[in-house]
Amino acid sequence: MYYTKTTIGSTTIETEINDESVFTRCPCCGREMRVDLQELFAAGDFDLCGTTILCPACTQKEA
Ligand SMILES: [Zn+2]
């Protein structure tokens, strides 16, 4: 498994990365969405820091 590690003061929090613990925000409206990283990696050409995902409502507006 992979996990993220965040240290706050003297406490370190480890959080497993899975399809239920990864979220992103829509860059247009700020809506929080759950993300399946495996699906994104499988799609190829995925940049962890540079990729943004629009929510369904904003995707429709863009189209
Ligand atoms: Zn949106």
Task: Summarize it.
The protein has 63 residues and is α+β, with helices and mostly antiparallel strands. 22% of the residues lie in helices and 29% in strands.
Terminal-residue CA separation = 37 Å
* Rounded radius of gyration (Å): 14 Å
Strand content: 25-35%
Mean pLDDT: 90
Low-confidence stretches: none
The percent range for helix content is: 10-25%
Written account of the structure:
By secondary structure, this protein is of the alpha+beta class. The chain is built from two helices and four strands. It has helices at 37-43, 56-62; strands at 3-8, 11-16, 23-25, 32-34. It has a two-stranded antiparallel ribbon with strand order 1-2. Strands 3-4 form a two-stranded antiparallel ribbon. The longest helix is centred in the middle third of the chain and has 7 residues, at 37-43. The termini are far apart. Bound molecules: zinc ion (ZN). Zinc ion binds at residues 26, 28-29, 31, 54-55, 57-58. Zinc ion binds next to helix 2.
Keywords for this entry:
63 residues, globular, binds zinc ion, alpha+beta, single chain, 22% helix
SSE topology:
Layout: E1 3-8, E2 11-16, E3 23-25, E4 32-34, H1 37-43, H2 56-62
Antiparallel strand pairs: 1-2, 3-4
